[in-house]
Amino acid sequence: MPLPDNAVADAIARLDGIASDLMSSAGIPGLAVAVVHGGKTVYARGFGVRDTRSGEPVGAATVFQLASLSKPIAASVVAQQVGTGAITWDTPVVEKLPWFALSDPAVTRMVTVGDFFAHRSGLPDHAGDVLEDLGYDRRAVLERMRLLPLAPFRTSYAYTNFGVTAAAEAVAAAAGRDWADLSEQVLYRPLGMSTASSRFADFQARPDRAVGHVKVDGTYQPRYTRDPDAQSPAGGVSASVQDMASWLSMILADGSHNGAAVVDPKAVLPALTPQMVSSPPDEPAERSGFYGYGFNISTSPAGRVRFGHSGAFELGAATTMLIIPAADVAIVALTNAAPVGVPETLTAEFADLVEFGEVRQDWRTLYADLFAGMDTPFGELAGKTPPDNPAPAGPPSRYTGTYANDYWGPAVVAEKDGALTLALGPRGDTYPLTHWDADTFTMSFVSENFPPRGVSTVSFRGGDMTVEFLDDDRMGTFVRQESRPR
After folding, report:
1. Is 188:36 a contact under the CB 8 Å cutoff?
2. Kind of pairing, strands 40-48 and 401-404?
């Protein structure tokens, strides 16, 4: 199906209106958009404010946190190293990280850089993310991957941040550099991405940066700070749309920038080739979605291949990019608000306009409904009313003490003035425990993986303690280490 006449130019002419409409309807504070076509940045503009407290405007040079839009950028760094011969997509990670292990020794020996970038290692979905929430650093999280159960190797797809991070660490080890330094040296600097960084401290130091916002009582507020350094290769890049446009131009130009080769096209091609089915069809007429190495790969209704990726921080960032190689066009959209589908809607409408000359689907409703599910409060007791006549709790001594869990580390239940608290993680973060019924208590907090209004049970049984929020894959039971009277 041929492109409409002046397809890209006409689609760009509609962008201001689309962006303004979406900003108004969603109420998000800030948005930046850039489009690349014909080897040039043909559109780059900011909308709204980067911080609702100051009201300072978003511009094309405003730096945003990219969240998981970092993954295709990380894949580009790896591809550059593959092109130099420093490593291959098929290099086993353990060859470069001898201390790294998964729960199956055979998988540990075989799992490669590419396996992790394709999310086919067998690790559980989002493995290690909650460890990061609790304050564990990159090495500590990666060392605990050996304790997790594995799905069938190379036949199951499960999206992970720390699998990608493990692979990136192997690439950095092969290069003899820190990952952030390597990314700057081989990608950001050659592409002239002057605001891009894989260090959170650099993002914090940028005077023109977009602060994350979450919705509180109907308005967006800058409540939380999201430091993603532990998973930097998978979610820790920050950049402006101007700089992202340089990277998109390089992808469209088969690894070249301003006539100079940055990444060997043969090395980046596997990243842009389907490696795993990521979205199986629900019915025969539907198309499958695929994942390459750090890139989503799909086919449009017009039959054109598309590359893309989104990113999201529940604490205040939503991002996406979309590349249509056959139309020689790419678009990136970055926001500073918790994900509600704005960047995905904008890029989907733009793609329709490019390929068909009109918006073919109600993307606004589709993405609003899809992202509404991400805000569902966690826990079996979320939204429930405490029992009118709960069974009484035991004396504090029944619960206080130190508990052990190989994966989550030690936990300490303490009592002061009749109230119990639970301390978790290397920082010793402390959470109040509220009695619910008998030996069941509840705890609430907000983190990247624990949305507002969530409620986690903390249950004591036979000397053990089970924390519902930590019990994915049945890993949430802690064994009491101190004997106390009951």
Report:
1. no
2. unpaired
Q: Is 303 exposed, middle or buried (0-12, 13-18, 19+ CB in 10 A)?
A: exposed
pLDDT tens digits for 350-394?
999 999 999 999 999 999 999 988 778 899 999 899 999 999 999
Tokens of 379: 């826990």
Please name which of 350, 384, 319 lies closest in space to residue 21, comparing C-alpha atoms: 350
The burial class, CB within 10 Å (0-12 / 13-18 / 19+), for 337 is buried
Indicate the DSSP class of residue 327: G
pTM over 0.85: yes
The CA-CA-CA angle for residues 232, 233, 238, to 5°, reads 60
Strand order in the sheet with 329-335: 40-48, 30-37, 329-335, 317-324, 305-313, 296-299, 289-291, 276-279
Domains and CATH numbers, the chain: 7-375 (3.40.710.10), 396-480 (2.40.128.600)
Cα distance between residue 69 and residue 61, in whole Å = 17
